[in-house]
């Protein structure tokens, strides 16, 4: 279980709150398995920290704390904690089927995407530069298919496949 221990105002979105909870057991053993889940944007095994993206906001897990940002109210926070407990328990129950993450994991950055784009700055996607397109890909404001050189030139097939895997 996770019990609510504190509520703070969410500075990222006024009118919303951050809920902070304490798990009934330390999360050190389950975090490497949770790090294999989708929506994980960072994981540090050295400090036992994991951050997941949620719409809206983030969930940050530590050995002894759970933070959820951009929460509407206390009731929603408690519901999110229960869903988080269910996800943690399900992950632990199925850990034999997972490969625990032992290395650091970080969120994809615009530069990671840009290095795989054709870097022609052709503007065919509607952006002024490939870097601007990379940023908008991360924000889900553009789709990879809008990069015409990436899809029209066979020389970029491996890059295209890498980008598809990175962004999904």
| Secondary-structure element series | EEHEEEEHHHHH
Please tell me what the overall shape is: globular
Beta-strand segment tally: 6
Structural class, please? alpha+beta
The portion of residues assigned to helices is 25-40%
Report the uncertain regions.
none
Question: Helix segment count?
Answer: 6
In round numbers, the mean pLDDT is 91
Strand order of the largest sheet: 1-2-6-5-4-3
The major β-sheet equals:
6 strands, antiparallel
Strand content: 15-25%
Head-to-tail CA distance between termini: 31 Å
Using only CA atoms, what is the Rg?
19 Å
Short overview:
The protein is built from 6 helices and 6 strands, in the order ββαββββααααα. The chain has helices at residues 31-34, 74-93, 110-114, 130-138, 148-152, 157-167, and strands at 2-9, 17-23, 40-44, 49-53, 58-61, 66-71.
Describe the structure.
The protein has 168 residues and is of the alpha+beta class. The chain has helices spanning 31-34, 74-93, 110-114, 130-138, 148-152, 157-167, and strands spanning 2-9, 17-23, 40-44, 49-53, 58-61, 66-71. A six-stranded antiparallel β-sheet has the order 1-2-6-5-4-3. A hairpin with a 7-residue loop joins strand 1 and strand 2. The protein is globular and about 55 Å long. The two termini are 31 Å apart. The model has no long low-confidence stretch (mean pLDDT 91).
């Amino acid at each position: 279980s996770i019990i609510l221990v504190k509520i703070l105002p969410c500075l990222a979105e006024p009118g919303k709150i951050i809920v902070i909870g304490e798990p009934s057991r330390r999360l050190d053993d389950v975090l490497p398995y949770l790090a294999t889940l989708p929506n994980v944007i960072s994981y540090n095994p050295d400090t036992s920290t994991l951050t997941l993206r949620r719409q809206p906001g983030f969930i940050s897990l530590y050995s002894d704390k759970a933070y959820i940002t951009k929460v509407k109210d206390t009731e929603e926070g408690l519901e999110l904690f229960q869903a988080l407990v269910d996800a943690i328990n399900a992950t632990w129950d199925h850990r034999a089927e997972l490969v625990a993450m032992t290395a650091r994991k970080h969120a994809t950055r615009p530069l990671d995407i840009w290095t795989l784009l054709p870097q022609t700055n052709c503007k065919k996607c509607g952006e002024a530069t490939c870097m601007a397109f990379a940023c908008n890909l991360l924000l889900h404001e553009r789709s990879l298919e809008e990069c015409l050189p990436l899809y029209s030139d066979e020389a970029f097939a491996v890059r295209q496949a890498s980008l598809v895997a990175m962004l999904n």
